[in-house]
Amino acid sequence: MTGKIDKFCLVGAVFALLSLVFPLSGVDIDTGKNVAFVSDLPGLASAMVACVVTGVFFTWYGVNTVLRGCIILLVVVFGAWQAIATLYGHGLAGYASYGFWMFILSLWALVWRGIDVIANYRTLDHGKQQTANVIVPLAFGIWLLFLWEVITAGFGVPQVLLPPPSMIGVRFVNSTDILWDDFRQTFLKAVLAGYIFGCGSALLVAIAVDRVPFLKRGLLPLGNMVSALPIIGVAPIMVMWFGFDWQSKAAVIVIMTFFPMLVNTVSGLNAAGRLERDLMATYASGYWSTLFRLRLPAALPFIFNALKINSTLALIGAIVAEFFGTPIVGMGFRISTEVGRMNVDMVWAEIALAALAGTAFYGAVALAERKVTSWHPSFRVRRH
Amino acid sequence: MTTDAATLPPAAAGPTLWGRMMKGQTGPVCVMLIGLFVIWYVGAVFMNMPGQLDRYARAKQDWNVSQLVSATLEQDRPVLPAPHQVAAEMYKTIFATKLTSKRSLVYHTWVTLSSTLLGFGIGTLLGVVLAVGIVHVQTLEKSLMPWVISSQTIPILAIAPMIIVVLGALGLKGLVPKAMISTYLCFFPVTIGMVKGLRSPDLIQLDLMRTYNASRWQTFLALRWPSAMPFLFASLKVAIAISLVGAIVGELPTGAQSGLGARLLAGSYYGQTVQIWAALLTAAFVAAMMVVVVSLFEKRVLERMGVRA
């Protein structure tokens, strides 16, 4: 880096400088005057100056260390905080103009460089490397949320179209009781029941199929084909058969999760090598003990693969099945009714809940996999 | 082989057709399918029986078993329609109605298929562009990749009604919102598959490109892109299947007027079970056909590229 010009920092500095000069806001319709000037906003002005200084300094002083990335990110955090404070504290929301957006662009250029520096950080210290690997996507995600907030507030985007994340967060915190009821109905009842039953029965069928080659040849092609079919379409039929409550959702999930598990487990049962099987044979080990001591453990990576796929399928299946008829509780029910009432913030709160639940569920399965199949090569620490 | 082998009966010369069929996949799959039909018929009889017995009781009608069985397979709104009823409904709505009529399944299939293909096209393009970026720009890889993965934890199918309603309020109706849902669903497997594929060339091949003093762009065109093709097609098969699911779910909210999803919803509102099953089987058939088409493309492309299957 030394001796070269850091383009991103330069762009950041230039835009921050321009943002000090250009008008911050458009014209208020009632008074015909500009809403805000830089001179009235010491906080924002100091953030802009900080961005100019940081950008200029790092444009020529280029030592690519983590310290540099952290300093840049800290300046960006300060700038972002000031930008939001200006939007909401000084009535800039909906009136933001050139100067303000140039400041945002400046922050964007700087944050890119900051993340870039940390992303390229290499160390043999495993803990530090892990921290860096977590900071990068986290910083990127927070930046995206900030952009979302600033763009929706700054341009005055109608809330029906896209509410700012702060509004969603407030709604989420204020309606935890409703959200909990929906979560219990959809996730704790339907998803878990369907998931456990679907995956469990598929596992048993897979062992039976593995025993009988004829079944294997007949069922596997069908199982592979079923994965391409829009199974979610059975939802209305299941609602008719099993009624409106969680049982019908669980039935849909059982059908959706069955085939991925079946196909994966059958191929997993063939994963154990010839050598290991011969070894078991020399121990005079029968079918069942070979199954439990060798073939099922060897199949675990495949089984967990299916469990991970199914964890996302199950949640989607439950929510979509709720569009076809529910009791008056559940995530899918809430989403479809609140959309009708144009309570978009509630819908987004439900979506956030669904995303959290889905991520947590997937994460739990992935964690279990790490615990159970820690011997698998894919979990080896990569040394750079 | 000696000459007297010719005098042996031909059956002994090799395995019978039956034996060959049962050795491979064709026989077992056929047996399974026949078994499925048998289960379906038996299930239809048993599931429709209570309703039929009710009807007999209300009409104070005498009945015997054979009457009962044939009646359960001929109900108007059965709990589980028999295969021949679904087939009849499909024939009626696919071949026997005008293509432009609202009753024609071909029309509804076309509505769903058009948004599926649009979403699939955009999603594939987006997925490939993202993958190229991720492979070539390290910052993108570190910052974007985790978000590409976590983007799929949002149950987009659950947001589908909202996207459709909101875009409808903006005056965007019909094809585009549905296609956007398909796009969101299908860019993911394409991105993941292409990242894998573009990274699949061995180090030794990449080094060879360097000895030729090839630019990154030339390396991409001559080495990375061709080696990613098998991965791309594997992803496309997954992507086209889920973009159909996206299109169908996109038709559920707001009581969409046309499309296979709308047929499912209308059928479930009015208890028209035969209509639901016809729409469902049509959707399944369309999905299977699309995967077959992608496979054919794959075969042609890989053959032209000289990849040995």
Automatic annotation (TrEMBL), chain A:
Domain ABC transmembrane type-1: start-end pairs: 204-373
One Pfam short name: BPD_transp_1
Positions of transmembrane segments: 42-63, 70-89, 95-115, 135-157, 187-209, 221-244, 250-273, 313-335, 347-368
Location(s) in or outside the cell: Cell membrane
Gene3D superfamilies (alphabetical): MetI-like
Main location: membrane
Entry keyword set: Cell membrane, Membrane, Plasmid, Transmembrane, Transmembrane helix, Transport
InterPro entries given in the database record: MetI-like (IPR000515), MetI-like_sf (IPR035906)
Source species, domain of life: Bacteria
Membrane topology: Multi-pass membrane protein
Protein name: Nitrate ABC transporter
Species whose genome carries this gene: Thalassospira marina
Automatic annotation (TrEMBL), chain B:
Record localization: Cell membrane
InterPro entries: MetI-like, MetI-like_sf
Protein topology in the membrane: Multi-pass membrane protein
UniProt-listed Gene3D superfamilies: MetI-like (1.10.3720.10)
Keywords: Cell membrane, Membrane, Plasmid, Transmembrane, Transmembrane helix, Transport
Keyword Transport: yes
Similarity section: Belongs to the binding-protein-dependent transport system permease family.
Protein name, as recorded: ABC transporter permease
Species annotation: Thalassospira marina
